[in-house]
Amino acid sequence: MNKTRTAALAALALALPAGLAACGGDDDGPVTLRYAFWDDNQRPAIEAMIEAFNEDHPDIEVELEQNPWEDYWAGLDSRFAAEEAPDVFWNHVSRFPTYASNGVLLPITDDIEADGVDPSIYPENLYDSWQYEDEQYGLPKDWDSIALVYRLDALEAAGIDPATVNDLEWNPVDGGTYVEFLRKLTVDADGDNALSPDFDPENVVQYGTAMSSNTGQTDWWNYAVQNGCSLQTEPWGDYAIDAPECVEAIQFTADLYNKWHVAVPAESTNQPNGGVPGDYVVPGQAATTLDGSWMLSFYRDGLEPGSWAVADNPSGPVGSGTVINGLSNAIYAGTEHPDEAWELVKFLGSEEAQSIATGMGSVWPGVASLNQGFADYWAGEGIDVTGFQTAAEGTTIGYPMSMNDAAFGTAAMDEFNQVWLGQKDAQEAAEAVVALANAE
Amino acid sequence: MPNLLETAPRPRSRQRPRPRAILEAYAMLAPSLLGFAVFLIAPIVIVVLLSFYDWNLLSDPEFIGLENYRELAGDERALKSIGNTFYYVLLNIPAQTVLALLLALALNAKIKARNAFRVLYVLPWMAMPVALGVIWRWVFDPQYGALNRFLDLFGIDGAAWLTDSTWAMPVIASVNVWQYTGYTMLFFLAGLQAIPAQLYEAADVDGASPLHRFFAITLPLLRPAMLFVLITSVIGSFQVFDTIHVMTAGGPAGSTATLNYQIYLESFTQRNAGYAAMLAVVLFAIIALITIAQAAFFRKRTTYDFS
Q1: How many folded domains does chain B comprise?
Q2: Residues of B near A (CB-CB distance < 8 A)?
Q3: CA-to-CA distance for A164 and A145, rounded, in angstroms?
Q4: Is the residue at B10 inside a domain?
Q5: What is the mean pLDDT of residues B154-177?
Q6: What are phi and psi of A31, to 5 degrees?
Q7: Please, which residues have CB within 8 angstroms of residue B34's CB and are 6 or more apart in sequence?
Q8: Which residues from chain A sit within 8 angstroms of residue B249, using beta carbons?
Q9: In terms of Cα–Cα distance, which of B120, B91, B117 is closest to B243?
């Protein structure tokens, strides 16, 4: 078997020029660690944390390898195959099951014990989500949730009191106050909003909302959870998005596009060509969106202070929940520098490092005691971010965990893009996704 | 004109070459033979082997015999991607070849700034396909794209080019036609210049019309160039990848997923490297069959001797 692996690896090494590049590793000199991540928004915080790391570890140089989400996983997988993967990398719960069970992650259980790292500084479920068969494979880097981000100027122009935004409700029948709110915020070129009989849906200058997502996390998953859909039968179980409460929420999402005309059209927002939700809110094409906490700095950098705010998610028939998620820093099992890599991971998981990130307003921290620091940073910017904390409670569910995440992701994007365009029935699409994702 | 595909006849020497000469010849050939073996033969052999395995890139491959090949029969996406590939080639090759030929005829005539035009048409081929793909994606953006803005001026409501499964493939094909026409033109231009002028003079004497001269002299004598152009561009268009990856990533609804793109999706997003290797073998077989058919078709009809 080993022979075939060598042959297969040779094939990949030949196919990928990157595989040919030698990786220089000197045992007796300064060590260079490669650290891979995807989010451009978080780069300043990462650089600041590495700078702090180097004060105590001047001999460990950290080389950043940044790839956008769309290319990140394919690049990582091929470098696992070529045994040339970065020493330390951002891990995502959706990929964690496959990686842990295939042995590409270095267990750090013993290091945690030997160095006396205290797991109780992290929320228990966040820490435990990086466990597989009694081994720990990462320290929590952050957590994230989804909340409603909106432009104050758009609300003012529509005569909506911002105090009412926290209490919006939707239902799949008549849309509820949430859809009414979005219709008020959807304005055509003549200044008529979507509630007006003169409204022209072909000529809209501002939409009520923008929905776009590579995964579902910032579009239909929110409505799904709010309608009682839990995406899977159980964590690690089959995908179950063909359940009636899921299909109803998918249909509601499609209605926001095609029935109520309150969402930036799917022709623009469908992935992979569409932007992130903020790309539509910042230039004023959309008045609100349901977006992730990791995007806060995107709005800060794109909009005037005081012109935007964060509110609670709308409530659906079941509640106002969403999907929460967290990332960890993981170590590649084949690293030549496991000790140095652990030093880096330990530091990035520490209160010291994460307080740098929260102090810059980058992401909600893995270290629970720093949550207030993050909220304080944003309060200083005039933004009340408690909407994200509220969103993490109640009916909210964890990110779906499955060995078939890749198949699910590809099938879901393919099928639901057609539903958003109004070209496919929600039920039919959901069944197709489930069939493909659970077949593996 | 040099013979493009067939090797020259063997010298019929009765003398056996000296061993030393053989050794020298192989020594000279060694560097390129080594490159050929390492970068071409070895990967092909490995991909064929890999097609009999199940491999998720992360752990050891598992031998499964012909299972990948059997699975293909029921794999709608893969079969659809084969159809998409032929659709793309049919959109791409005739348009590109005819345009290139017309351009070559125009730029073979004595017109002003001829060289400037020749350079201009080859420029897209010299640029990076990924960078071009990104720019064309902007041009075809349904709301902010230059194309729909332009159509707006005439009151035409442009389509959502790249998110519409009817339009996406023709759009991709047109971008590639635009990119490779100039390059293809170069071969026709070289072919045109190799046609002896006295043939046209003789035709003039016989009073042949320009159209008649084109079909009786130009086109038949361009066959060597045509053979080369068709074989290389058909192979190239069966292997299209970068434009698709940048502009549509195979979507919408799989409408631009060609077989080559499906190989990428299976291998790098679905982690089915063995299955992807099987698809690569299928693509190889399709291209080989078509190339052999093209060569056979032209061999009977091609003249290399213009004297």
Answers
A1: 1
A2: 38-39, 42-43, 46-47, 49-50, 53, 55-63, 137, 141-143, 160, 162-165, 247-249, 251-254, 265, 268-271, 273
A3: 21
A4: no
A5: 92
A6: -105, 140
A7: none
A8: 70, 272
A9: B91
Nearest Cα to Cα of residue A397 among A136, A145, A142: A145
User: Of A132, A135, A131, whose CA–CA distance to A107 is shortest?
Assistant: A135
Q: Which residues, listed in sequence order, are joined to residue A65 by a DSSP beta bridge?
A: A36
**Tokens coding B154:** 């005439």
Q: In degrees, to the nearest 5, what angle opens at C-alpha A27 toward C-alphas A24 and A29?
A: 90
Of B47, B164, B270, the CB nearest to A410: B270
User: Which residues of A lie inside 8 Å of B (Cβ-Cβ)?
Assistant: 1-2, 4-5, 7-8, 10-11, 14-15, 70, 73-74, 77-78, 80-81, 98-99, 102-104, 265-268, 270, 272-273, 406-407, 409-410, 413-415, 417-418, 421, 423
Residue A224 neighbours by CB distance under 10 Å: 29
Residue B103, pLDDT > 70, answer yes
Q: Over 60: is that where the pLDDT of B86 sits?
A: yes
| Token digits of residue A326 | 């967290």
Q: Which two tokens stand for residue B115?
A: 């060289």
Query: Within 10 Å of residue B161's Cβ, how many Cβ atoms?
Result: 25
Residue B210 domain-assigned? yes
Query: Which residues touch B39 (CB under 8 Å, ≥6 apart)?
Result: A14
Q: What is the CATH number of the domain that holds B119?
A: 1.10.3720.10
* Angstrom distance (rounded) from CA A272 to CA A69: 11
Instruction: Pick from B46, B148, B281 the residue to mutate for testing the A interface (most A CBs within 10 Å).
Output: B46
Q: What is the pLDDT of residues A287-338, one digit of tens each?
A: 999 999 999 999 999 999 999 999 999 999 999 999 999 999 999 999 999 9
Q: Give phi and psi for B48, each to the nearest 5.
A: -60, -45
Domain of residue B141 covers: 72-299
In angstroms, rounded to a whole number, what is the distance separating the alpha carbons of residues A295 and B103? 50
- Among A71, A77, A95, A280, the residue to mutate for chain B (most B Cβ within 10 A): A77
A–B: how many Cβ contacts below 8 A? 105
Residue A403 has which token pair?
């060995």
Q: How far is CA A101 from the centre of its chain?
A: 23
Alpha carbon separation from A201 to A211, A265, B288 (Å, rounded): 17, 10, 52
Whether A270 and B252 lie within 8 Å, measured CB to CB = yes
Q: What is the pLDDT of residues A112-139, one digit of tens each?
A: 999 999 999 999 888 998 999 999 999 9
- Phi, psi (5° rounding) for residue B272? -110, 70
Q: What pLDDT shows up at residue A136?
A: 96
Asked, for residue B84, whether it belongs to a domain, the answer is yes
In a domain, B283, yes or no: yes
| ipTM metric | 0.81
Measured CA distances, B205 to A318, A426, B209, B213, B306 (Å): 90, 72, 11, 12, 19
Structural domains in chain A, sorted by start: 11-18+27-144+325-380 (3.40.190.10), 146-321+404-437 (3.40.190.10)
What pLDDT does A103 receive?
93
Q: State whether A11 and B59 contact (CB < 8 Å).
A: no
